[in-house]
Amino acid sequence: MKTTFQTNELTKIALFSALISVSAYIAIPLPFSPVSLTAQTFIINLMALLLTPRQTICTLLLYILLGLIGLPVFSGGAGGPAKLFGPTGGYIFSWLIAVPLMAHLKGSRYHFYRYCAVTILAGMPIIYLLGTVYMKYLTGMDWAAAFTSAVLPFIPLDLFKCVAASLVAKPVQLSLSALENSRS
């Protein structure tokens, strides 16, 4: 098993950690839910489609560590353990399962429909399920209330973000490959 990282891998990990952090600032609070609409879903899906499972895990662990030590990288510019272990922390923890799984299932070659299927049918259900369960138990909501505030309002925009990430993945993938080949 490979235990060291190449420079290009470390660059991708740092870049995506920064992108997740910045995308957390693009947040629209909803008055009926502790969960905000953020651009993080787009970045999470793009990360899964561009990185290896190992790289996604390292990226997410770095992001979580940055937030835990208090840097304002969580949604709405929050940081610290309270945000991570609060009602919306389940979404962040769910990424540790969903994103490497999507990265594994995407295959080795770009295919738009497979990318859409992986993000919509594998990633989002895991994120919704774990985020909802975590919120339900932390807040004491019943299942219907948890589903209504943690899943239902997000489905249309999340579907759009999955498709958008699947579209954007190809040109970004080509650019990254060109950069790597030019350095060889």
UniProtKB/TrEMBL annotation:
This is Biotin transporter. GO terms for molecular function: biotin transmembrane transporter activity. Belongs to the BioY family. It comes from Clostridium porci. The lineage of its organism: Bacteria, Bacillati, Bacillota, Clostridia, Eubacteriales. One of its GO terms (cellular component) is plasma membrane. The chain crosses the membrane at residues 12-28, 34-53, 60-78, 84-105, 112-131. Keywords: Cell membrane, Membrane, Transmembrane, Transmembrane helix, Transport. Pfam families: BioY. It is found in: Cell membrane. It is a multi-pass membrane protein.
